Amino acid sequence: MTPISTRIIARGAWLALGACLFISLLVAPASRQASASAQTDKADKPLYHDYKGIELGMTQDEVRKKLGNPKDKEETQDFYLFSDKETAQIFYQTKKVVAVTVSYLGAKTSAPEAKAVFGSPVEPTADGRVYKLVRYKDAGYWVSYSRINGDEPMVTVTMQKLQ
């Protein structure tokens, strides 16, 4: 494969991964509520409240002014490819940010640790995976953190407006 086709395939994989994650977070509320790692109605202020200055409720124009022109853009979402190791998807309803999903791929990335996102460490599963979702009722959104280990570990952090 040529370097260009490799980048296109990698970009497509990031898009598919982000879309699958976003859909799974929307479609499976019952499984999320049943999860022992999920906490609800947390009154304290979330530590993770923005990504590169992008917060929930910002307008699409404000996001594009702050982050620049997205790699792919639609009315309901923007896809940013900051590097081969970091991507972000910004989701909109009525041109306002309702969700932000950031993915980091590889061992040497700027991915935050779960402790930086939640204020305390998250216990990994037996195979080393880490997952936690916390709903911040007072703030009006939830934050999730997922880390999958392997040759190319992946960390995904999402914040989304509560329904």
Description:
An 8-stranded mixed β-sheet has the order 1-6-7-8-5-4-3-2, with helices on both faces. 27% of the residues lie in helices and 32% in strands. The chain has helices spanning 3-27, 29-34, 60-67, 114-118; strands at 38-39, 72-73, 77-83, 86-93, 96-105, 130-136, 141-148, 154-161. It is of the alpha+beta class and 163 residues long. It starts with a helix and ends with a strand. A hairpin with a 4-residue loop joins strand 6 and strand 7 (141-148).
Number of strands: 8
Question: What does the main sheet amount to?
Answer: 8 strands, mixed
- The SSE order reads HHEHEEEEHEEE
Amount of helix: 25-40%
Strand order of the largest sheet: 1-6-7-8-5-4-3-2
Helix/strand structural class: alpha+beta
Set out the fold topology.
Layout: H1 3-27, H2 29-34, E1 38-39, H3 60-67, E2 72-73, E3 77-83, E4 86-93, E5 96-105, H4 114-118, E6 130-136, E7 141-148, E8 154-161
Parallel strand pairs: 1-6
Antiparallel strand pairs: 2-3, 3-4, 4-5, 5-8, 6-7, 7-8
Descriptive key words:
8-stranded mixed sheet, alpha+beta, 27% helix, 163 residues, disordered N terminus
Write a concise synopsis of the structure shown.
With 163 residues, this protein is of the alpha+beta class. It has four helices and eight strands; from the N terminus they run H-H-E-H-E-E-E-E-H-E-E-E.
